[in-house]
Design a protein that fits this description.
mainly alpha; 2 strands; globular; transmembrane helix; Sodium:Solute_Symporter_SSF; Na/Glc_symporter_sf; sodium transport
């Protein structure tokens, strides 16, 4: 197998064109006559967006280069069990649309953390805002740096040139065009992401002789390990860790995270907001299936000669760019399309983060303390977008200290997002919760999540918990060295010979907890501690302002039930009226109608 080719002129043209179009959308919304005259126009699009573009933007925002580059490598290394995340998406959308969306949309807030002050206190609002800012800046730094490093090592694209160009372009259109520019740029970029993934899939299928060959190779290599129902929470990926842990993780993203909530509250009606979430579900399924199948294609190509073990790439995150140049280099511009797909994911996530950071800073840290006009707030919003764009570019350097892209990203979201999800859930679901309980629960949940996450970084889990699959090199052409089969367990664990000697008891029984459970751990801790402290501190006497907790009127099923009852009632009334006037009236029909009306009152 020859080494992969390098980037051509046409590849750079395609990549540059993607950046120019993205920047052009921001310029259009800045100068099209629909300028942002107020902070609400800039930050939430004047609450006039429709379902489809918002849905595509929701999908693009967190389906970043982490998905394009990291998920296929996850499948290549650990198997296709990660496809079970599609079940978690269903549960996440149901919970987000039925519990969190109605509350935030009804309140008409700009920042989700405004709810925390309404429900608890100003201190908890500030605490939540600061946690969100820290989480988002760290996550965004990883999203900028990791794909740039992977693509630099394989394609030769300049590392800091790529970091700066993506950072500057997304900061530009965020600052100029506000949320409308971010949403419509996301629509364009999600199309590029699909095109890049499909290009890899189609060419792989053609070269390998069909989908059946790829599936067969994956099955023989143990990559179709989907149905693993082991309940052990220390196992890295099982049905339970991915569905349960994934539901908590993605609900913390789509239910309460400012970057996502800001999108669906920009919709012109509650119906459009809920439709956006459900359309987004289909997009998430499609992207996940494509990225997982790319991982199977990756294994099918390199099942007998792993480029990482053979030292043809220096990190696993570089495998997808390596495959692209290996199979698509003879088509000018197509490798550039895949790189554009990876960077479209980066741009969509960074722009969402920058816009959300500007929104919470204006709504939570500036507006409550400074008397500014709407025009001044609009300019302040643009200034904050510019500031946070620069901060995220600078934070990209910190990302080099983190491990694999997918796990590092999910760990960051889970450690902070889990406790915040618990805090919002406590307030929305339990009327007895008070400020003391909320603060005690948040501190406890955050401390516990940080403890296990930091411990996991110091003491990586045993291979029997992470279970990396074998990678072989017996078909590689080595010069002056023998070929071998390599299970890569030691390297993946980040350790050397005898790595598990002298490990403390907690290392194998607490720090080895699957990273997908970091979020649920924080959420459950916040709710449990918060309820206990609230009840002990007189929470049962708490009078909660109307609209801050969930009610049955917010639920779609309850509304559908009422509509159905009304239609049945109209139908029965019409039938009885017709029968009376046609002299075919039967007493049992009147009895049925009275019974139905009695049930409605009950």
């Amino acid at each position: 197998m020859s080494s992969a080719a390098s980037f051509s002129v046409w590849d750079y043209v395609v990549f540059t064109l993607m950046l120019v179009i993205s920047a052009g959308i921001g310029v259009y919304y800045a100068f099209s006559g629909r300028g942002q005259s107020s902070s609400a126009d800039f930050l939430v699009g004047g609450r006039s967006m429709t379902a489809v573009p918002v849905a595509l933007s929701l999908s693009a925002s967190f389906m970043s280069a982490i998905t394009v580059l990291g998920t296929p490598v996850e499948v290549y290394q650990y198997g296709a069990v990660f496809i079970l995340i599609c079940f978690a998406y269903v549960l996440m959308v149901a919970v987000s649309s039925e519990i969190f969306l109605p509350i935030f949309y009804r309140l008409g807030i700009t920042s989700t953390y405004e709810y925390l002050e309404m429900r608890y206190s100003k201190v908890i609002r500030l605490f939540g805002t600061v946690l969100f800012i820290i989480q988002t800046v760290l996550y965004t730094g990883l999203v900028i740096y990791a794909p740039a490093l992977a693509l630099n090592q394989v394609t030769g694209v300049d590392l800091w040139g790529a970091v700066m160009s993506t950072g500057v372009v997304c900061t530009l259109y965020c600052t100029l065009g506000g949320l409308k520019a971010v949403v419509w740029t996301d629509v364009f970029q999600v199309g590029i992401m699909f095109a890049g993934l499909l290009a890899v899939i189609i060419q792989s299928v053609l070269l390998q002789g069909g989908i059946s060959t790829i599936i067969s190779d994956s099955a023989q290599g143990g990559r179709l390990n989907i149905w693993d129902f082991d309940p052990n929470p220390l196992r890295r990926h099982t049905f339970w860790s991915i569905t349960v842990g994934g539901t908590f993780l993605w609900t913390s993203v789509y239910g309460i995270n400012q970057a996502q909530v800001q999108r669906y509250i920009s919709c012109k009606s509650m119906f459009h907001a809920k439709m956006a979430l459900y359309i987004n579900l289909v997009c998430l399924w499609a992207i996940s299936i494509c990225s997982v199948f790319c991982g199977l294609c990756l294994y099918s190509f390199y099942k007998n000669c792993d480029p990482w073990t053979a030292r043809k790439v220096s990190a696993l995150d570089q495998l997808m760019p390596y495959l692209v140049l290996d199979i698509l280099s003879e088509y000018p511009g197509v490798p550039g399309l895949f790189v554009a797909a990876a960077y479209s994911g980066t741009l969509s996530t960074v722009s969402s983060s920058v816009n959300a950071l500007a929104a919470v800073t204006i709504a939570d840290l500036i507006r409550p303390y400074l008397s500014l006009s709407e025009k001044q707030l609009s300019w302040a919003s643009k200034g904050m977008s510019l500031f946070y764009g620069a901060v995220c570019i600078g934070m990209a350097g910190v990302a080099s200290l983190m491990g694999g892209m997918l796990q590092a990203a999910i760990s960051i979201v889970g450690v902070v997002g889990g406790p915040l999800l618990g805090l919002f859930s406590l307030g929305i679901l339990f009327p007895c919760a008070n400020a003391k309980g909320g603060l005690a629960g948040l501190i406890s949940g955050l401390a516990l999540s940080l403890w296990v996450c930091i411990g996991a970084q110091i003491y990586p889990p045993r291979p029997e918990n992470s279970r990396p699959l074998a990678l072989v090199t017996h078909s590689c052409n080595f010069s002056g060295s023998a070929n071998w089969t390599f299970s890569n367990q030691n390297l993946l664990a980040g350790t050397q010979q005898d790595p598990f000697l002298l490990r403390p008891f907690l290392a194998d029984n607490w720090y080895s907890l699957s990273y997908l459970y970091f979020g649920p751990l924080g959420t459950v801790t916040v709710i449990t501690v918060g309820l206990v402290v609230s009840i002990l501190s007189g929470g049962r006497q708490t009078k909660v302002q109307s609209g801050l907790t969930i009610s049955k009127e917010d639920l779609t099923f309850y509304k559908a039930y009422n509509i159905l009852k009304a239609k049945v009632s109209i139908f029965l009334n019409a039938r009885i009226y017709t029968n009376i006037h046609s002299h075919h009236f039967y007493p049992f029909q009147l009895l049925a109608l009275k019974g139905f009306r009695w049930c409605r009152k009950v």
